[in-house]
Design goal:
The protein is of the alpha/beta class and 321 residues long. Helices cover 36% and strands 19% of the residues.
């Protein structure tokens, strides 16, 4: 299995303590999650109806400013698993370095897989994948540059898992164009990864194919209720975006004492060149703060943002010279 953040069981095994004692900054999840509120018992006991799911779809379209066909799934990962089944085997080209599940999933399905390092390298692919903004370095493009790829690839998959807090970046208003498929995460920005909720937006044919593959009840009743409530809460989203932008600068300032340099990031995580990331990770881990390192980039350390002031105080005390 590809290496991921969120592997807190490894941190506990190696450094001790209980999972609840740790500050997990390895995932890029918002650590001040949306307040879910009450969920009526029926949402747990009854199968979701088609009208329930459609109400969530309407909330997502409103949030993403689109009229495109949409399907809710159990997180973006659920959509990634299905991508090789959208068409016959061919050439998959993935803009790298990026989230490592894409190459793994297409390779497992016996596609011709290659990682490329610029947009030109995607041309001619049967499926081209761009994570936007990119994970882990936050690389972004003007949306027009991505749209210009459409005549040159069979299908363009744009993973917008970290786009919620970056205005003007999303291609959602353009979703529905033939050959364009967007993936949106709910759990990252709203800090509710355990809810397992995400969306795919695209052409009628692609969305219908995905909907058929996931079956009649792809998400839970609780995910519908909480997801709809959160997606329509623009006041919370605006306040959160403002806080995250501020906290990015705060984290960048905090790590200056270590001599780390900023490689890039998004409003939900930062990527630093540390010189020796494993040593940096171990220093943080001794104080039960978990981070993400990368085997192919021994200097890179990715950090999510601490949540409340208690977490910030622990981080500051740990990182102090």
């Amino acid at each position: 299995m590809p290496e991921h953040g969120g592997n807190l069981d490894l941190a506990v095994h190696r450094f001790g303590g209980r999972a609840q004692d740790w500050i997990d900054l390895s995932t890029g999840m918002n650590r001040q999650p949306y307040p879910v509120g009450e969920v009526e018992p029926r949402s747990w006991s009854a199968l979701p109806s088609r009208s329930d799911i459609e109400s969530l779809h309407r909330a997502a379209r409103e949030n993403y400013a689109t009229k495109a066909p949409i399907v809710a799934l159990g997180g973006v990962q659920a959509a990634i698993q299905l991508l090789p089944s959208l068409s016959s085997r061919g050439r998959a080209r993935i803009l790298a370095p990026t989230y490592n599940e894409y190459a793994a999933v297409f390779s497992a399905a016996a596609w011709d897989v290659a990682e490329v390092f610029d947009l030109e390298g995607l041309q001619g692919a049967d499926i081209a994948v761009v994570v936007h903004p990119n994970n882990p370095d936050g690389r972004c493009f003007d949306p027009s540059e991505l749209l210009a790829l459409l005549p040159r690839v069979g299908r363009l998959v744009v993973d917008e898992s970290f786009a919620d807090a970056v205005s003007g970046l999303s291609l959602a208003p353009e979703a529905g164009r033939p050959g364009l498929l967007l993936l949106r995460s709910f759990g990252k920005f709203y800090g509710l990864a355990g809810l397992r909720l995400g969306f795919a937006l695209g052409s009628e044919a692609d969305v219908a194919a995905l909907a058929a593959m996931v079956g009649p009840w792809p998400i839970s009743g609780a995910a519908i209720v909480i997801g709809r409530r959160a997606l329509l809460d623009r006041d919370w989203a605006n306040a959160t975006s403002t806080r995250l932008a501020r906290d990015c600068l705060r984290l960048d300032a905090e790590v200056q004492s270590q001599g780390w340099t900023l490689v890039g990031g998004t409003p939900l995580f930062r990527l630093y060149e540390t010189g020796e990331a494993r040593a940096a990770q171990q220093k943080l881990a001794r104080h039960q703060i978990w981070s993400r390192i990368f085997g192919k980039r021994p200097g890179w350390l990715r950090l999510g943002l601490p949540g409340d002031e208690t977490e910030w105080a622990r981080f500051s005390a740990t990182i102090s010279p």
